[in-house]
Write a structure and sequence with these properties.
With 163 residues, the chain is an all-alpha fold. It has a domain of 112 residues: Invertase/pectin methylesterase inhibitor family protein (Butyryl-CoA Dehydrogenase, subunit A, domain 3, Up-down Bundle), CATH 1.20.140.40. It has six helices and no strands. Helix 1 packs across helix 2, helix 3 packs antiparallel against helix 4 and helix 3 packs antiparallel against helix 6. The longest helix has 29 residues. The radius of gyration is 19 Å and the shape is elongated. The N and C termini lie far apart (47 Å). The relative contact order is 0.14. This is Pectinesterase inhibitor domain-containing protein. It comes from Microthlaspi erraticum. GO terms for molecular function: enzyme inhibitor activity.
Length: 163
């Protein structure tokens, strides 16, 4: 009986180690290992996900960050009326991330067509960069924009593993 319990505990430890190593191994292939691990470890689905699942978790992170950024843009309309034009363009771009890029990436990855998923992820980073440029160096969104670019780059690397 004792041997059986020891064997079962060893199997549990092996499963936990292999799950952790899946995230670690996958993140080693991305441009930002620590960001990748941080994002995937913060989601309970990460410990049991395959590569497609990890990519979908990161697409969810893109969606969450785009929503947060859009809320910040809406808040800035009242605080910084002099930035109305640039904020409007950013709002339009972040809505495109939420309404086009994220759904495209989710559908493509879920259906096993990662190339189109990669396109959606790349476009999220492009939209964030274009938003940032609209402020001509005086953006109140720089930290959110850089986060979107970094998450998009990590996500793209994982989606490329599916090609």
């Amino acid at each position: 009986m004792k041997k059986l319990m020891v064997m079962m505990m060893m199997m549990v430890v092996m499963v936990v180690v292999s799950e952790a190593s899946m995230v670690q191994q996958t993140c080693k292939e991305t441009p930002n290992f620590s960001l990748c691990v941080s994002l995937l470890d913060s989601d309970p689905r990460g410990s049991s996900a395959d590569t497609s699942g990890l990519a979908l978790i990161l697409v969810d992170k893109i969606k969450g960050l785009a929503t947060k950024t859009l809320n910040e843009i809406n808040s800035l309309y009242k605080k910084r009326p002099e930035l109305k034009g640039a904020l409007y363009e950013c709002s339009r771009r972040y809505k495109a991330i939420l309404n086009a890029d994220v759904p495209e990436a989710i559908e493509a990855i879920s259906k096993g067509v990662p190339k189109f998923g990669e396109d959606g992820v790349i476009d999220a980073g492009v939209e964030a960069s274009a938003c940032e440029r609209g402020f001509n160096g005086k953006s109140p969104l720089t930290s959110l924009t850089k986060s979107m670019q970094n998450i998009s780059n990590v996500t793209r690397a994982i989606v490329r593993m599916l090609l």
